[in-house]
Please model this.
Amino acid sequence: MTALDDLLDGVVSDVDVVLLFSPSTSAFEPFEAAELPVVVVGSENTVDAEQFVELPLEFSDITGRIRFGLEGAVDQGLVTGEDTAVCVTEAFGDGIDTVMRVRADQFSRTGVYDLFVNSRAEPAVVRDVFEVCIELGKKGQKGKQVGALFVVGDAGKVMNKSRPLSYNPFEKSHVHVGDPIVNVMLKEFSRLDGAFVISDSGKIVSAYRYLEPSAEGVDIPKGLGARHMAAGAITRDTNAVGIVLSESDGMVRAFKGGELVLELDPEEY
Amino acid sequence: MQFDWPQFVRQVFSRETAVTVSVAILIVGLVIAYFAWRWVDSLLRAADVDTAVEGTPFERTAQSFGTSTVSIISQLTALFVYIAAIVLALNIAQLLDAQLFWAQLTGYLPRLFIAALAIVLGLVAGDKMALVVSDRLRSIKLPEAEIIPELVKYSVFYIAALLALSQIGVATNALLILLAAYAFGLVFLSGLAFKDLLAASAAGIYLLLVEPYAIGDKVEIDDKRGIVQEVDMFVTHIETDGEEYVIPNQRVMKSGIVRIRE
Model:
């Protein structure tokens, strides 16, 4: 067993910080007493940790989860760029089973954490829209794969840079995303053309919007369609976040500042 | 008490029979009391009172004495029924000459019962209200906010005590005046404190229902020109390049709205 012990020692030697992903109280307590700084990452701070990064989505993809946790920790100043972190998490959903050694500057920053926390819209609103997209991507509308485009935040400017394609079904309705009934409504309306516009506080301002931003200097991967281009362009022109469900490949992509920030496969959630 | 039952019974029966009848009343009263106990108990349990009062200090105290709020109330009812039966029996048998005393006692008993009930209900309701209010205020992490549930709790205790005292006939006028002053102060002060919020929300309801301007419109309100970003119950957010005005809704109503069309 010495070879195995050595291997594990090598993984955990000279680390600056430990990232615990959704630990149980019994798993967290021994770390709390230790000298090594500990950052808890999870959807809820169940163990009352001092240093905590909130996960907005249940990332089942492990690299996505670690990337988000680490970027969040760097953003909050809990981890500096040169630190080496050990991430303790579960990969197959049966308690902690994975220990991973990562350097904080090992991968380029994508701004995933930034997308949720430092957007104009409230983090909960961005998360709710993501959840609608993921659900829609999983099941489709009436068994058929659909596409959708949500523009979240900075609604005033977005409305000024777009025009209606038809009557707005959400006029004078005062409904907010995250409400289960509204989510069903959004799914029903997903067959409409155009974009959904959602305000900072989560109010659905309009559906059926044709976005008219200037597409200059928008740098998104080639091969993505008009919907993605529109989302990328509107986020460059305004402070909004664009969340797109692709009709062709079923992926959920998020844009901010004209750039692709996050790509998720709904089937993994 | 229009009809004098004991008098009627004494007229109909002889003295010996009256004693027998009163013994019978004692036994029947015992049975009725038992059924009242069972009935109130099951009624309260069916109405989920036992789960509703769970966690309140009164219930916990009752638990530590090996009983519960539900059984205390149902036993109280049974006790009341049984005491009423005893008084009736004694009256019929005329074992005691102090007629006046018993007549007063029969009038007094229901009030005593209600007073006891008011105390129990007040204690439970006060604790429950405090729990509910503090649950609502949990998101506000202010040490000062913790005084509000306590205030609610003792207000309910006070009213319960007032009810109980007035039932047993203690002069409660002074306490009532205190309560009135307290209620008035509360209403007056909160009206003063929430004046602006009330005005804003009244205007906000109009703005949300009629929607004279919507998100994305260019407007000028109160000499502030910009694009509407958000309208809620209390405020309207208007944004220009680099500046965001948060305007209370009553100001919107007061100054009027200029919609700008180019």
The mean pLDDT of chain B is 83.
